[in-house]
Amino acid sequence: MVLQKRLGYEFNGYQVPNVPRGSRSTRGKRCVRKRVVENDMCAFELLASVAGELLLGKESSPAQSDTITGGSNPMFSKDKVKEEQDDGLNSYEDELRGQKSCDHVSRASKIGFQGQEHGCIFTECLHPSSIVIISDPSEKVTFAEESVFSRNKSEFARSPRPDQGKFSVKVHSPLSPGSYRGKVEDRIPTPPQFERQKNADGIVPSPCFSEDLMEVDIKPPPLVSSSSSIETSPKSGSHMEYAAGIADYEKSSSCNQTCNMTSKPFRPQRIVDRRIRKLLASKFWKVGPTLLKDGDFSDKDEDVKPLFYSRKMCYKRQRTQKFSFKRKKLFQRGSISSCDLPYNGEGLSCSPEIHIKGEASSSETGVHGGNGTSSSPGAQKFAFDSDDYHVKLSIKSFKVPELFIEIPETATIGSLKRTVMEAVTAILGGGLRIGVHLQGKKVRDDSKTLLQAGISHSDELESLRFTLEPNSLQSPKPLISNNEDAPLLPICDSPEPLKRLPPIAVTGGDSSPKRHRPPLAAGDPSRVNSPRRGPTTPPAERQSPPDSKALVPVPAADAEALAVFPLHGKSRRSETGQRRVRRPFSVSEVEALVHAVEKLGTGRWRDVKICAFDSAKHRTYVDLKDKWKTLVHTARISPQRRRGEPVPQELLDRVLSAHAYWSQQQAKAEPCPRLT
DNA sequence: ATTAGGG
DNA sequence: CCCTAAT
């Protein structure tokens, strides 16, 4: 039986309404929800368009690139495969032989089903793997099961099962099947075992498709290159993902009715042991553990237990904020590389997009009507106040950079929501910076005036773009010195981040009808659980103006770039609140520490830090305190048991004596402070 | 923000 | 090193 340890979700981005600082978290929450609701009508739209293109063998519009990134996380996939390969294989084999049950499907479907209530397209997991949520250029989200095309890529073409043969998805790759397959596989290595499962046609029977009949001929893009780099052609990637999305959508939709019912029995009975939790905790956003905790006992939907949920939410909110704070700190100390973030370093802005809406006092002033084409990034209006020549821009909304979330399959939908919320909050609170790009070039000179920069002319405004950038990551290089850092550095740290990740365009305020987001579902009760905000929430905050709902997704500025971007090279770790690299204290450091403590005593770590490690920004007073702790311990154990770089016995002796001394002082002072 | 301690 | 509680 395949037991998926967790589900990985990649969010290529959310549209979050621009909101006042104070209420952003709430907004974010609302947004997430809204997002889901909105997806409602996106599914078919997307499917229709994509299917049309695929069937016609046409190239995806570059605008769709926005999506690609979501599915190209080689790292992630690889890990996944590694971790669950065995299970997957066994399961797979079982299925091949005996029509194994579709438990994983069921489980996934369960999620998917619920998800669909909100209009989400979730796909089941054929094999344990991740789920990639892909958003199309129009910001519609599609959830594609990565494994579908990653592991079964070529095998994506399934032959109808003899016994159930009602469902089949075929992928014809007349142009270059080889490269096509290779392409995908490169992105997500397929275990050799799986390869062997393929028959001569490279087709692997689908163990789980069965509920419906579907035939989809998907022609691979003609331009698929055979390069094995993860820098897959955006187009091909796009196709694949869309293809997967379609298939999965079909699958999930058709399976919903049936699988949903059978899902219960298959509810994972597995209990995630603490170890796994820790793993999760360390590998992913802090939300991981929280989530787990939550999921364990909060299996009910918030609507069922409003009060309980509410309380929990409050708790969560606190955690979230704390988390955000920590994240921020992480950023600041630069232990997280830019790529760790959903958005990548320097202006990479893999996706953040901001929409600017002209607020011209006089509608006439606007240059290009906002109603422009949906894909026109430069559809912003701007006002030209003839009096003071103010360039008025209002950021209507921006898109939160991609998020990566991993959540145990046993988690509840409610916890999933919370997780997403936290992730979004973390990003927003993680210290963002705004980058300004004009005509493709980043405007770095902050002192330059708009006029000087040329941001006062309509034509210029068209090319004006804003990006969200991680704050305080100016110098990602500092990390390099430590070899241990290297492996953690995402590929994106390589030069030319901008090239690979062009900024997202800012568009005009008026969203084209096409992109118009349907209003938030009326009776959405979820709002109730909005932590810290209940009936008291100011109306203004609770409801976004009609306008803000018009989340205007902007097509990625550069599909290619996005596609190429190794989105998750290592982002997983990073998002997790990457544990700091270990930096063993050198003897000299120990020396300095001992000396400082001898002088200042224990319990004054801040002073010690300032005194002896003021320049060592990576040594916090907590670190020093911890080090002292270990030093004391080390000094007490036999030399044979000591590890790491040996510390001169002399120093250890001093440690002991200093420790003893200060302990005594402390003991003396404790009992009767007044006497001191 | 610091300190103290457990993990 | 991380995480928390308590200051």
TrEMBL record:
Entry keywords, A to Z: DNA-binding
Pfam annotation, one family: Ubiquitin_TPR1
Record-linked InterPro entries: Homeodomain-like_sf, Myb_dom, SANT/Myb, TPR1-6-like_ubiquitin, TRP_plant, Ubiquitin-like_dom, Ubiquitin-like_domsf
Domain Myb-like span(s) in chain numbering: 577-632
Region (Disordered): 60-88, 154-184, 360-379, 471-551
Domain HTH myb-type: from-to ranges: 577-636
DNA-binding recorded as keyword: yes
Every Ubiquitin-like domain range: 391-462
Bias kind Polar residues: ranges: 61-75, 471-484
Record flagged with keyword DNA-binding: yes
Recorded GO MF terms: telomeric DNA binding
Biased composition annotated in UniProt, kind: Basic and acidic residues: 154-164
CDD domains found in the cross-reference section: SANT_TRF
Record protein name field: Uncharacterized protein
Organism of this sequence: Spirodela intermedia (Intermediate duckweed)
